[in-house]
Amino acid sequence: MATTHDFEGFAHVHAQRLGRTAWLLTGNHHAAEDLVQDTLTKLYVQWTRVTRADDPLRYARATMLNTFISGRRKRSSTERPTAGVPERLHQPDHNSRVDLLRALDTLTALDRTILVLRFFEDMSPPDVGGQLGLTSGPVRTRTTRALAKIRPLRSDDYAPTGLGRPAPCPTQPGRSDA
Q: How far is CA 168 from CA 123, 165, 177, in A?
């Protein structure tokens, strides 16, 4: 039988990893904390079901991704465009993390989620597809398109491992796959 103590142990062990993923998804420390709290609240309510899952961390991640994507959908219907883009507060050295977050901010919630899972959670396209209810083909396609969209936005001195230009496909000269 699942207990509150079991949930507290799970939350203690996995909160940091969930927090990192949430920060990459949201691009904001406070929004990431809120996303983790929302996720943990949902997990607590369904804790008996979570403990019956094959992989409770996978269940937690799926809950977080669904919460993030549905939250972005809700907000997008109330957002209004402005004439200019407000300056974002960032660290004085304007480091590569700020560039990465700006690039990720240009993507849809689903594309951002796919890139975070593929390159920062180091998940394969089939695993990402399994988390999001997609097959690996659309995951690969969306990865390629999202990378193409953010590639021009990165600074010249920043090319993170895995987010640089994909290697050419060996079977088709000049073609690249993600």
A: 21, 9, 7
CA distance 69 to 109: 6
Whole-number Å distance between alpha carbons of 93 and 158: 14
Q: Which amino acid is at 142?
A: R
Q: State how far the Cα of 158 lies from the Cα of 168, in Å rounded to an integer.
A: 20
Q: How many helices (H) and strands (E) does the chain have?
A: 8, 0
Residue 107 DSSP one-character state: S
pLDDT score for 53 = 86
Output Rg (C-alpha) for the chain, integer angstroms.
18
Question: Residue 84, class by beta-carbon neighbours within 10 Å (0-12 exposed, 13-18 middle, 19+ buried)?
Answer: exposed
- The structure's pTM equals 0.55
Half-sphere exposure (Cβ direction) of 126: Cα atoms closer than 13 Å: 0
More confident site: 99 or 37: 37
Q: Cβ(23)–Cβ(29) under 8 Å?
A: yes
Residue type (1 letter), 125: P
Amino acid occupying residue 130: G
Residue 127 C-alpha from the chain's centroid:
14
State the Cα angle at 123 between 22 and 131, rounded to 5°: 70
Q: Give CA–CA dist 116/128, Å, rounded.
A: 10
